[in-house]
């Protein structure tokens, strides 16, 4: 059986107010071709289908159009979707009965029965081969909030949320194990942050404040052939466990992800065991540029911007640009000067990142008492902040302008 693993599409995402419908459509069209070319039996989509809980109608159309065409082009395909932390579980579940009639199974939320017990059976899905026979079982576990997991008595200060997640995976695995026949594999899905996973601070939303959401690889039973994860945008293994993988996002969702290798993963199962994992590179429809490569003084930045000569392209294909400026003092006309240097060039100015080479002053390192803070005047605070940010004394004209602002 051959599986394709993808996640973190974030349909509807905008990059600094530039909508990205064109890029997402290019990816989805490419993925449709990949399903056919790779002769896939299963497509696992591990959460964060949408960028937010209230996706636009255009984003929902993109998803449903993709699902329809995927089944037309590969009628035997098993399509499994789980919700991520960006998704609305209810919104994903709502069209579930209709989608299931067309071969797509969606797990948005953990369901409970009339007694309030978790319906583990709804999380354990059969995967069929081209003959129609069951060849594997999938633990399709969506992003789990604290109220979604079993209540577990813990010892030694263990976190009950993490213990509940581990228990739910154990229950789902036990059910799959009881149903599995000889030659059938068990695979798992999850949308979570595993211990030691590398994240992009610019675009990945923390699931729980304080890091207590990080899960150990041990939540997956050793008999699980493959674990398809979502949430982290950098494609990576979990520790030394080659069979526990994040596929990563299919396109860069922030400038921090410019150098990520975006991909889907092809997984080949040989009966109940994993045979091979192969990354399949996703072509980038629109480039993200950082000029300069490291923050530099404004004069150098303007020179590099003037030298830019990207090829002409329709607006939706023009590169996004982040300009990185190292400031020595405030530059009130910074944006206007950058826009002038880019005038007529086929790029989209998405972000201006400013930084300074300031040194922390000795005053900043002191711990002030409440009495000392009360004695500080607004102009004292202005002087200290200027010193902290730019590494030198505030100019007289700026002190004068600040004093005028403070006049009653």
From TrEMBL:
The keyword Nuclease applies. Pfam families: Metallophos, SbcD_C. This is Nuclease SbcCD subunit D. Keywords: DNA recombination, DNA replication, Endonuclease, Exonuclease, Hydrolase, Nuclease. It comes from Duganella dendranthematis. Belongs to the SbcD family. Residues 1-233 form the Calcineurin-like phosphoesterase domain. Heterodimer of SbcC and SbcD.
């Amino acid at each position: 059986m051959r599986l394709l693993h993808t996640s973190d599409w974030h349909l509807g995402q905008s990059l600094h107010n530039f909508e990205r419908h064109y890029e997402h459509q290019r990816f989805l069209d490419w993925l449709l071709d990949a399903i056919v070319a790779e002769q896939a039996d299963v497509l696992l989509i591990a959460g964060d289908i949408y960028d937010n809980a209230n996706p636009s109608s255009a984003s929902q159309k993109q998803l449903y159009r993709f699902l329809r065409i995927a089944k037309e082009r590969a009628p035997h395909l098993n399509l499994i979707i789980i919700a991520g932390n960006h998704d609305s579980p209810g919104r994903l579940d709502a069209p579930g009965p209709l989608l299931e009639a067309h071969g797509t199974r969606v797990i948005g939320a953990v369901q409970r029965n009339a007694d309030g017990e978790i319906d583990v059976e709804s999380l354990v899905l059969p995967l069929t081969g081209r003959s129609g026979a069951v060849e594997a079982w999938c633990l399709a576990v969506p992003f789990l909030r604290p109220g979604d997991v079993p209540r577990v008595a813990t010892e030694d200060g263990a976190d009950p949320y993490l213990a509940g997640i581990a228990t739910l995976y154990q229950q789902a695995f036990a059910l799959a194990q009881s149903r599995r026949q000889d030659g059938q594999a068990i695979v798992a899905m999850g949308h979570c942050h595993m211990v030691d996973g590398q994240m992009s601070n610019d675009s990945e939303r923390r699931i729980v404040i304080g890091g207590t959401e990080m899960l150990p690889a041990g939540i997956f039973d050793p008999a699980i052939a493959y674990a398809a994860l979502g949430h982290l945008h950098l494609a990576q293994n979990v520790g030394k466990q080659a069979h526990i993988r994040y596929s990563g996002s299919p396109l860069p969702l922030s400038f921090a992800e410019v150098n990520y290798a975006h991909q889907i993963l092809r997984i080949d199962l040989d009966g109940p065991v994993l045979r091979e994992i192969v990354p399949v590179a996703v072509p980038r429809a629109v480039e993200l540029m950082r000029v300069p490569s490291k923050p530099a003084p404004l004069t150098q930045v303007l020179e590099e911007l003037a030298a830019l000569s990207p090829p002409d392209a329709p607006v939706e294909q023009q590169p996004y640009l982040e300009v990185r400026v190292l400031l020595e003092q405030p530059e009130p006309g910074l944006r206007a000067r950058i826009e002038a240097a880019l005038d007529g060039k086929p790029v989209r100015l998405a972000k201006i990142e400013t930084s300074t080479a300031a040194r922390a002053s000795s005053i900043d390192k002191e711990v002030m008492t409440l009495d000392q803070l009360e004695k500080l005047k607004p102009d004292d605070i202005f002087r200290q902040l200027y010193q902290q940010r730019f590494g030198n004394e505030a100019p007289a004209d700026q002190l004068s302008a600040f004093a005028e602002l403070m006049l009653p």
